[in-house]
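Predict the 3D structure for this chain.
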Amino acid sequence: MSAEIAQATSRETLELRFRAPRHLLVLCDQGRRSDGQTSVAGLPRSELRDLARSFVFVPAGSDYHELHRPRVLPRYVFFYFDPSRMPPPGQGAGAASWAPRLLFEDAALLDTALKLKRLI
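Done. Predicted structure below.
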C-alpha cells in the first residue's frame, strides 16, 4: 500500500483522472462543490455536492474521473493497493471480484483512514 494527500489551494476547477493496474481508495477528507460530478466505470455518475468524509473505490484497470468546482477547498487522501496482495472476497468458482463503489460512507473505514492520514 502507498498513500498521498492532495489539497486544492485555489477555487479553480479541479479535474482528477485515474486508471492504473492498482486499486485506488479515495477519501475526500473535506470538500463541497458548487458544480461537478464523480464517476467510476460501470456506475452512474454522481453530482453529490457535499463530499466530506466520503469514499470512492476504483478497482485496478477501471476509470475514475472527478470534476470539482470547489465551494470548500477539497482535501483528498489517496490509498493505492497492489491487487496481487488483495485477492477478491471469497474463493473458488463464482467468487466475487472487487467492485467499484462511488461516494459511500463507512465509519470503521473512515476511522482507519484518518489514523493513516495522521501518520503520513
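The domain at 2-84+100-119 is CATH 2.60.120.10 (Jelly Rolls).
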